[in-house]
């Protein structure tokens, strides 16, 4: 169909050539109108060409967008490579899994992000099933003040020794993320509300958030969830099978 469309347009222009004085001279207004009339007649006689032309245009735009997206992910991956230690081995980050794991999953997330909530259990399920996988949690509250409150609470839960339990409970929480609601979630996993409030108010909590936010921005992360697995930076919600494939790819690349 693409060749047919191009051929008909070429033929239309060819038949318009007698109206031109020479190839080097511009078309006169009358000649331009004659060319337009021939093209219009061709399209009226072959209306399917319009649909074909739109299909070609959409495909080209999709290919261009894919190429631009790949280039952006490659750039972000290169930026991440320069921050490998901060991403995978910052002692202040909460983690799950063995310290000698051969593959590390780094996840940037926001507790108010619906896609982060979708993948929360998937990430932990994969890590629990594969004893050589380690997860590094990066609090990345980009969806407003309540996200910041939730992230501060999670860091407080880490200090109190119940990060993963609180993380899972807060990801499962469906309501608002104001202080009262978050403390309710905290007590549901055995945390003391007063101790949580004390920890949340500590300046090192704010310092930690600032550090992680700066790291994410330096890489170019603008949405959540975002994963770094091996050398691959993967944005968006992923299923367990894809996570396992990314882990296998990371191992094969070593």
UniProtKB/TrEMBL annotation:
Residues 1-23 form the signal peptide. InterPro entries: DSBA-like_thioredoxin_dom, ScsC_N, Thioredoxin-like_sf, Thioredoxin_domain. Keywords: Disulfide bond, Oxidoreductase, Redox-active center, Signal. CDD domains: DsbA_Com1_like. Transmembrane segments: none annotated. Residues 74-252 form the Thioredoxin domain. This is DsbA family protein. The lineage of its organism: Bacteria, Pseudomonadati, Pseudomonadota, Alphaproteobacteria, Rhodospirillales.
């Amino acid at each position: 169909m693409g060749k047919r469309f191009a051929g008909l347009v070429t033929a239309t222009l060819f038949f318009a050539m007698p109206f031109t004085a020479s190839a080097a001279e511009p078309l006169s207004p009358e000649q331009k109108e004659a060319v337009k009339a021939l093209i219009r007649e061709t399209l009226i006689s072959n209306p399917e060409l319009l649909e074909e032309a739109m299909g070609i245009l959409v495909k080209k735009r999709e290919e261009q967008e894919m190429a631009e997206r790949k280039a952006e992910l490659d750039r972000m991956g290169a930026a991440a490579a320069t921050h490998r230690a901060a991403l995978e081995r910052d002692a202040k980050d909460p983690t799950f899994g063995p310290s000698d794991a051969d593959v590390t999953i780094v996840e940037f997330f926001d507790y108010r992000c619906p896609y982060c909530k979708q993948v929360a259990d998937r990430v932990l399920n994969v890590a629990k099933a594969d004893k050589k996988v380690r997860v590094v949690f990066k609090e990345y509250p980009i969806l407003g003040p309540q996200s910041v409150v939730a992230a501060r609470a999670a860091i407080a839960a880490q200090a109190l020794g119940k990060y993963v339990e609180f993380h899972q409970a807060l990801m499962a929480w469906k309501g608002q993320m104001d202080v009262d609601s978050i403390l309710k979630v905290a007590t549901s996993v055995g945390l003391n509300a007063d101790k949580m409030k004390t920890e949340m108010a500590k300046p090192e909590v704010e310092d930690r958030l600032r550090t992680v936010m700066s790291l994410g921005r330096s890489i170019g992360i603008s949405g959540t969830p975002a994963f770094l697995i091996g050398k691959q930076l993967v944005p968006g919600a992923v299923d367990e099978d894809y996570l396992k494939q990314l882990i296998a790819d990371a191992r094969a690349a070593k």
